Structures are given as C-alpha cells and as structure tokens.
Amino acid sequence: MRFVALLRGGLDIYDTRPPIADVKPSLHLIGLPTDQNSSFERGAAAAPGAIRTALFSGRGNLSTESGLEIGTDIMLTDCGDVPLLDVDAAADDALITLAITKAIEVGAIPLLLGGDHSVTFPIVAVLAKHYGPLNILHFDAHPDIYADFEGNPRSHASPFARILEGGHAKRIVQVGIRTLNRHCREQAERYSVEILPMLDFSAEHVPVLEGPLYISLDLDGLDPSEAPGVAHPEPGGLTVREVLSILAKQNAQIVGADIVELNPAKDVNDITAIMAAKLVREIAALVHHNHSGDTP
C-alpha cells in the first residue's frame, strides 16, 4: 500500500500543491462556517471547528471500520475554512465556488463541513459544471425542497429545489425523511425526487446509485438520541449504524460530500461532533475505496 500523509494547513495549499495523476485519490477537507440561511436557530457556523476538534482528538484515532487509516492509506488534506462573510449569500457562494473549483483543478475530492444546508447548492452547482448532472444521496429529516421558505429562496430548507431548478442533478434519493408536508410532497412529485421515509424504513430498500455520486448528510437525519446537537431535532430518525450500512452499499465514483447542520451550542458532551467526525472518516474511506479499490 502506498503511504500517504495527512496534511494540515490553510486554503493557500491550493497555490502550492500540483495535481498528481498517478496517486490514489486525495480528499480535501474544507470548512464552510455559515448559518446565515438557517430558519430557526443559528449556530451551525461553529460546526467545522467542532468537527475538526473531534476528528483530531486524542480520544480516538484516524482508523476506519474497513481497516484503512487516514494518514497511512487515505490522503486527507485539511484545507481549513473558507473565509465566508456570512451576510451575503451571493458573495459566499462565489467563495465556495472558488474553493471547490481549486480542489477540482488539483484532482482532489472535496469533503465539506457545514454550516447550514444551504451550502449544498453552490457545491453541487460547481461539481455538476465539471462532471455533468450528479446523482445525489441525501440523508435528512427534512426534504429541503421548499420553493421559497419564509421569503428566502436560499434557505437551508430549499437547496435541493435550487439544485433541481438548475438541472444539476439527474437523480436524488432522500433517506430519513419524516417531516414531509403537502408542499414538499408536491415538490418531490414535480421533480421526481425519490423519498424513502422513515415510516416502515429498511436500509436494504435504499438503492445503489450510479456515479458521479454526491453525498449530502444533514445530521438531523439521525435520531436525536444519537445526534442531539442540531437545531431541528426530529424523533424517529436513522441510527449511525443504518447510515453506515447505506453508505457501504454505494460503489460508484464519489465526486464530493458534505456533512452539515451540526449546532455545537445544542450538543451534549460533544456526542454529535464525535459522530460527525466518525462520518468524516467513513466517507473518506468510501471515497478512497470506490476510486482505487484499495482494501487493507
């Protein structure tokens, strides 16, 4: 197995790191500290730092359940946070687009730490510009397809409506949904969104999607007993093990992923941040394996 190192640094790494075509896939961990489009309680802007603290804490290590290790088998570069202003969605979209574009230019797979779920729209838009329309696997308690939530078309309750309007997705599968109201049901029918609600849910019913695949993981898709640190807790959600089982089924090329909606102010003993850090490791391992076929 090729040895690859874990790097810690800022976004200026993009100016010095040349593209390398003959190595296993590199992942760029990029923080998006924003919650300007949160509809209820702000706090998600503090999430990237909380997840990093848990990820690099001495309480655990950087191994994954497959046996692959970040820093030994998996190249993960921590690129720091994008310096978002968090007052102007258009300006922040431009900064997010620039960060994702630079990752693509050096052949890296972006793994984004939100922030609220509104960040998924600019991420997917720039990835789709490069790869073509994406297949999206979306974990959430909410479908986030409001046409216009409370007068804000960029609300964190609307990113998938914007993605679908823009033609950036060819298929969206939503898992964990348990708040589907009439408007969102109509939106799902309008755009042919595939929703697997939690009522009578079984992980075996989640399809295996083709590539290019994007994974968007809203932490309130998990049950509040396992992820209390969110602004919109909804009982009756997924377990961590169910999420991992669903991810493990996916074998397509993954072109990006996000983990969003951690609200550290609502967390209990850092449980949600620790769980998010585990998901960073497991998604990184899945990206690595699906691109290279590498196993321990």
CATH C-level category: Alpha Beta
The percent range for strand residues is: 15-25%
Which word captures the global form? globular
Work out the count of structural domains. Answer: 1
Please describe the topology of this protein:
Layout (H helix, E strand, L loop, with lengths): L6 E2 L17 E7 L14 H9 L19 E7 L7 H17 L2 E7 L5 H12 L2 E6 L19 H7 L3 E9 L4 H10 L2 E4 L15 E6 L21 H10 L4 E7 L10 H22 L4
Parallel strand pairs: 1-3, 2-3, 2-4, 4-9, 5-6, 5-8, 6-7, 8-9
Helix pairs in contact: 1-7, 2-3, 3-4, 6-7
Question: Which short descriptors sum up this protein?
Answer:
296 residues; alpha/beta; Arginase, Chain A; nine-stranded parallel β-sheet; 9 strands; globular; disordered N terminus
